[in-house]
Hints:
Strand content: 5-15%
Shape: globular
CATH class: Alpha Beta
Order of helices and strands: EHEEHEHEH
Number of domains: 1
Structural class: alpha+beta
Amino acid sequence: MTYVVGENCIKCKYTDCVDVCPVDCFREGENFLVIEPEECIDCSLCVSECPANAIYAEDDVPADQRHFIALNAELAKSWQAIIAKKNAPADADEWLNVKDKLHLLKR
């Protein structure tokens, strides 16, 4: 099992999770983070650090977000690793509770 970044991360992109990852498995896009499933060691440290509650164990991904499992794996192949926390976007808090943001994901 691996961990998966879900929809809540889109346009929020808090990077608190990156600081606690012991294997640097996060990858960064313009407005979203993903987890490289081949590198994730299932430690779960990132889950409690995510202010957006956007990280799930693969078995716990909500039914309406199951497509994020494949999306994380796909995007992790082409996005660069992020190994240190960065400032969140200035409007991140405004996007925190917005639903149905997949169309806003910048690949």
